[in-house]
Amino acid sequence: MYARDHALIATPIGPVRIDGDENSVLRVTMGAQGQRYAGRSAPVRAAAEQLLAYFAGDLKEFDLPLPPMASPRGGELRDGLIALRYGETASYGELARRLRSGPRAIGQLCARNPLPVIIPCHRVTAAGGALGSYSAGDGPATKSWLLDHEQRYR
């Protein structure tokens, strides 16, 4: 068992906490409380640096060690979500078709995403381009901010 580590950074959408260990980034929490902290482990420090670069408009693709998924199929779905490019959106149904899955499975993947922004569930929209829900930060308001941010720096 590896010691847990965290960082707390200031972003345009409020404080963001990054949890991880010596092997991977485990969780990102928007709206976290506490004092700014840089973290000690390499994955947590890298995540903090990359998230700050993302919010500055300088990073379009994350390169971080992520924990393994519980199943190979879960890994395929997560990889398909990560493959949505910066500034691109897809509906739950469209992404489900691409990944040979169901819209509900995509919805559950997004709702249970422990790594918002890094795993870009904000890029998944409802049918017809409607914003849809978002389980991180201030919900749809945060999702809208992230999508607008990506369009601005595209």
Report on this structure.
By secondary structure, this protein is α+β, with helices and mostly antiparallel strands. It has two domains: 5-55, Double Stranded RNA Binding Domain, CATH 3.30.160; 72-153, Winged helix-like DNA-binding domain superfamily/Winged helix DNA-binding domain (Arc Repressor Mutant, subunit A). Helix content is 36%, strand content 16%. Helix 3 (92-98) packs across helix 4.
* Overall morphology: globular
Oligomer: single chain
- Indicate the CATH topology of the largest domain: Arc Repressor Mutant, subunit A
Rg measurement, Å = 15 Å
The termini sit apart by: 40 Å
What is the overall number of helices?
Answer: 5
Largest sheet: 3 strands, antiparallel
Strand content: 15-25%
Uncertain stretches: none
Characteristics:
Double Stranded RNA Binding Domain, single chain, 154 residues, three-stranded antiparallel β-sheet, Arc Repressor Mutant, subunit A, alpha+beta, 5 helices, two-stranded parallel sheet
Q: Summary?
A:
By secondary structure, this protein is of the alpha+beta class. It has 2 domains: about 5-55, Double Stranded RNA Binding Domain (2-Layer Sandwich); about 70-154, Winged helix-like DNA-binding domain superfamily/Winged helix DNA-binding domain (Arc Repressor Mutant, subunit A), CATH 1.10.10.10.
SSE inventory with pairings:
Layout: E1 5-11, E2 14-20, E3 25-30, H1 42-55, H2 72-82, E4 90-91, H3 92-98, H4 103-111, E5 124-125, H5 140-153
Parallel strand pairs: 4-5
Antiparallel strand pairs: 1-2, 2-3
Helix pairs in contact: 3-4
